Amino acid sequence: MMNWNNRATRAIQDQVLSQNEKLKRIQDTLKAIKLHQHGDIQSAVSLLNKKMDNLSTNVQQLTSNLQQVPDQVNNNLQAQIQQSVRVVSERSEKKVIDSIQTINEKVNTLCFFVSEIEQHFPALTTAVSKIESSQSDKSSISSSSQGPQSRLVQ
Q: CB within 8 A of 110, min separation 6: which ones?
C-alpha cells in the first residue's frame, strides 16, 4: 500500500513539475509575443510614417510642378493627388490595424491557456500535500502500532 502511495505521489509530483514547466514556457512565450507585438506595432507605425513622409514629399513635388499648369488642370490634379494620398493612407492604416488585431487575438488565446493552467495548478498542489500528509500519518500510525507488538513477541 505504501509503495502505491509513493507511486501516486511521484506521479502527481511529476504532473506538477510538468505543469510548472508548461506554465514557464507559456509565460516565456507570452513575454516574447508581447515584445514581438510591441516591435510589430512600432515597425508598422514607423513604416506608416515613412510612407506618409514619402507621400508628403511626392505631394510637394507635384504641387510645385502644378504651379506651371493652368488653374483648371491644377485643381483637377490636386484633387486626384489628395484622393490617392487618402487611399494609400487608408490601406496602410487598415494593414496596421489588421496586424495588431491578429497579434492581440494570439495573446488573448495564450492568456486563456495560462489562466486555465493557473486555475488547475493549486488543485494539483493541494492533492500532493494531502497525499504526503496521509503518508506521514500512516507511517506514524504503523510505527506506533508495531511498538507494542514487538514487545509482546519478546
A: 26, 29, 30, 33
Nearest one of 149, 131, 128, 127 to 139, comparing CA atoms: 131
- Contacts for 39 with CB less than 8 Å, ≥ 6 apart: none
Residue 152 pLDDT: 44
Check residues 1 and 85 and name the one with the higher pLDDT.
Answer: 85
The grid coordinates listed for 45 are: 507605425
Pick 35 or 2 by higher pLDDT: 35
What count of residues does the chain have? 154
Q: Where are the domains of the chain?
A: 20-123
Closest CA to 110 of 42, 39, 22, 16: 22
